[in-house]
Amino acid sequence: MTLSNVDYQIMWNRLVAVVEEQATTLIRTAFSTSVREAGDLSAGVFDCRGRMIAQAVTGTPGHVNAMAESVPHFIEEIGSDNICEGDVYLTNDPWKGTGHLHDFTMVSPAFYQGKHVGFFAATAHVVDIGGRGYGPDANEVYEEGLLVPIMKFIDRGEVNKGLVNIIRNNVREQDQVIGDLYSLAACNAAGDARLMDMMNEFNLLELETLSDFIIDNSRAATLARIAALPDGTYHNEMMVDGYEAAVDMRVALTIAGDTLLADFAGTSGPSKFGVNVPMVYTRAYACYGLKCAIAPDIPNNTGSLKPFDVTAPEGCILNAPHPAPVSVRHVLGHFVPDVVLGALHKCIPGVSPAEGASALWNVLLSARPTDPTSGLRSSEILMFNSGGMGARATLDGLSATAFPSGVSTMSAEATEHVGPLTIWQKDLLEGSGGSGEFRGGLGQTIVISANEGYELYFNAMFDRIQFPARGREQGKNGGVGSVMLDDGTVLKGKGRQLIPAGRKLILQLPGGGGYGDPKKRPEALVRADLEAGYITQDQAVNDYCLTL
Amino acid sequence: MTQQQARVGVDIGGTFTDIALDLNGTLFTGKVLTNYHQPEQAILDGIHLVCERAGIAETDITTVIHGTTLVTNSLIERRGARTAFITTDGFRDVVEMRTENRFEQYDLNLTLPTPLVKRTDRYTVKERVSASGDVITDIDPSELAALVERIVAEGYEAIAVGFIHSYANDVNEVTVQKAFAKAAPELSVSISSHVSPQMREFQRFNTVIANAYVRPQVAAYLGRLVERLKATGVTCPVFMMHSAGGLISVDTASEFPVRLLESGPAGGAIFAAKFAASYGENQVVSFDMGGTTAKICLIEDGKPKTANTFEVARTYRFAKGSGMPLSTPVVEMVEIGAGGGSIAHVDDMKQIRVGPKSAASEPGPACYQRGGQHPTVTDANLLLGRLDPDLFAGGDIPLSVPLAGEAMTNKVASVAGLDQEQAAFGVTEVVDENMANAARVHTVENGKEIGNFAMIAFGGGAPLHACRLCEKLSMDYLVIPPGAGVGSAIGFLNAPFSYEATKGMYQRLTEFDPQRINALLSSLRAEALEFVQRGAGDIDTTTRVQAFMRYTGQGGEIAIDIDYKDYVASDVETFRTQFEAGYHRLFGRTIDGLGIEITNWSITVASTLAPVEPITLRRSGKQIAITKTREFFDAALRKVVTAAEVQRHTLQPGDAVSGPAVIVEDETSTIVTTGYTVVAQDDKSMLLVNKKIMGAI
């Protein structure tokens, strides 16, 4: 059978289905809440050279480019001669994987008729990795937990028991963590089985020709999109809270012909705490933001990702070298799309939304009995919550919706079964969306307390408390967030803190910026927003100039 | 004519209202156009039509069973009642905040579906029940009285009530219901602890709102239907098909109309399930392909797979997450935007894409000659010789090959740099690949290997595509049953009376409490049995119990079948082993050292059906003489082949036609690829068998 153009296209479709199946297998078997509920994972198939050919659409953008870059590291460190049938490799090296120790990347070589033809890779966020636990308080990566360098997890079918033992003895929730490692290996195996079916069906002996077809087509389409942009260098700057000091995020976006470079020179230096971002993660989110605006429909693979060139000076907070602490690198990482989209707005107005809450407000709660001798059991509860998205050029921003992250929230009822706490409120925060012809999305209010007999500790990793999401084109800023107790005590936005027994934690999540002059918003919409309580009377009168 | 059974199934679909009459075992079927203004009129017309065909009078009918997509349409088109929603203080926006997720990651201009009840119609009251079902905050009677007064004064047509953790304790919801019953007895009030007492507030609130929203309309419609049937002499009992593939009384349907949403597709699954059961095929995939979408359902041991949640009214290319998730029992289906009318185009990477946009019936595919400019799957089938231009829809719709070719050339071939035949092949191959992938993922999600399944295909488009799908999925057996054009209506006639009662009750196995479980199961069974008896009277029933279980720390449960019996403390081990067996079946392993917990419970009581008459499938047959041939493009061989053309009605049991072949009938054509042989069966079905398997027999 000679393969036609249509055959290559069918195989491309099939590979996307193969990696979706790989991802589905992982989601269904994983223990990590963030994998299951939040899609904090990634799955893909690579050729022998380590070029990514297809990636599951399921998955969070932070892993997109990051995992795509990881396989060449594996090839280099394992060594081509040492790649054997039945092998599986892993690492959680933040600089060679996906940015923090909690993410394991598992790579399995694929063999067809005894010949090495490619790789499957999958990444997942595990429940625990030892150290201080998931939070920003460490000063070096060594405090953040166990780092497993690139090595064999399975060597020609034999599980590396020594490694499993080391991991088992260095993490909390051992069974879940080890279980997730096996889930990762199993999902690669599921993808591998489908790939073998496809190679049989199409009589393929290697993947390189197909890989060239996919990558060349995707690259050409991506380059054409970039070439259509006006040449020039476009700057943007955004301030965010950071941990111990505000962070200045800067980018220069240069378009020249069909090349694009996002350079973060001028961005603040590193933090002493775990909000630093490894370069791979910065690149992942910069690329994601730009791709949404420029080439959203082109599937992710090496061909469509490579044209987005991203750089940051080593040592800045967006290119933090080892051994910087990086545990909650997502906070600043989630702001990267806002920064690059702001620059892109100067190049092609009308595409980038206004700034949004952007960084997730993840709450990791530890419930501890107030009386340690009571026999009550401790538990850990993880919640994902989102503020408002920025307004778009022709649409209001989405309220309480994750962007750029791809996560979902959990049911409050389900969360209350995980640990001894009560969620008293989880509602939109009225008036938190930035005013504009198109209104920013609203943030939300969350009120939580421990049940009787318990107190709660929580790891704060919250931002946009000092610096709001800015509006665009005369749109107003979104509301800032706040963290406090119901007695009025103001808490910090970052770090581990106590909610004493009997007290309630009140989180107010930031809103998104508005887009366009609020005075241009039709009066009927302003009145409807006021009646529904989306905006306050003060906003109606002062921003929208409504006569009551 | 007094002893006879004349049972009528009626399925109101988006375009057609299908009628099937079973007169003492003989089927008569008919189709009339759906009447949107007076749906019951089409039913009366259709019943009249089949009665004429069968030579009986309307007064001879002994049972009418009805299913409809009208409830779903009413949700999609937002034509329901003006509804107020009352919820716990602090949770006004649950139905607006949804999952806080974007179902499409790369679309900066994404919009989310708006809730059925807007914020100004959502009210809160101070009340609270804990996760364990204890009342933490009682409702203040004066606050409630003021709220009721305000809501009544607003003139709402329906009320939905959904409180946090009400599945665990309904007392506060019932208090609100009673307050309305007193203040405004005529007002329709739905409460979440009765409509859908399952954990997870977003789904439960959606469900009670959807129920309230369609309830006045459905109740009025069903009332009218029964009256008008009586007026024409159909005085027999009328029953409704529900989404989980069973029958309930009209009264129950009027109270819980949200249970009717997927009744049409459920009928299709029951239709396929009966064939699966009679052949003794324990692992079957049903495949239903119409003009706009294709639906896939797993049927194991003769029963369609059911689920407790599903998503209705998806707004964005059928994307998961773009609709309204509801928690109500339903036959589980995967639906994708792939049908005969699906439009093909070429994207920026010069790749052919098909659907989910559909040319629908107006203007329809380019070949319909009604002004359609875009090439569709039907156009591609025509160009590849799989459809006969003169025999489509029994010759009612003459198809134009030149117009199909023109559209294919302009929009696909010339853009992708292919010749016309390659382009048409590409279009069908892409759509077949999409459907095959969806089917494969669905079986994987259920821990199964699709190659071990047989396929039963029905719906207008399925027989054209099913054989190619089987090739792609390594499936060796494919059944094309007779009467497939009105499969759902026929399926209604094979459904038992059934009712599924569900409830959230959280329990860790380390805190296993047999008394609580026994109390819950017996109350759920009593509830379900009562609904079954409302329709069926005092009859033999079966009881199925499912516990939704997971390892502590996981977010999703798996359904585990357990016995209906009195449990004692030592039975905790049974729960554990059953769960571990189920987990192993799905995921291929179990995990030591983790706790196990149960979240939701369900009991289905169903009337016992007469055993299905077993039919032995003829897996080989005698090749008949071929008198006519035509050419079609065989996708696996990538070339045009000369195929036998045979009229389906001429086939006798045991006749075989070796592929390539086209089996023609009025409603559709079955394509038998070169790799398969078709064998006519005793019950007028056709079995397509992979030749490799035949050789082995």
TrEMBL record, chain A:
GO terms for biological process: glutathione metabolic process. GO terms for molecular function: 5-oxoprolinase (ATP-hydrolyzing) activity. GO terms for cellular component: cytosol. Signal peptide: none annotated. Residues 6-518 form the Hydantoinase B/oxoprolinase domain. PANTHER family: 5-OXOPROLINASE RELATED (PTHR11365), HYPOTHETICAL 5-OXOPROLINASE (EUROFUNG)-RELATED (PTHR11365:SF23). This is Hydantoinase B/oxoprolinase family protein. It comes from Marinomonas algarum.
TrEMBL record, chain B:
InterPro entries: ACX-like_C (IPR049517), ATPase_NBD (IPR043129), Hydant_A_N (IPR008040), Hydantoinase_A (IPR002821), Oxoprolinase-like (IPR045079). One of its GO terms (molecular function) is 5-oxoprolinase (ATP-hydrolyzing) activity. GO terms for biological process: glutathione metabolic process. Residues 204-498 form the Hydantoinase A/oxoprolinase domain. It comes from the Bacteria. One of its GO terms (cellular component) is cytosol. It holds the Pfam family Hydant_A_N. Residues 517-680 form the Acetophenone carboxylase-like C-terminal domain. This is Hydantoinase/oxoprolinase family protein. It comes from Marinomonas algarum.
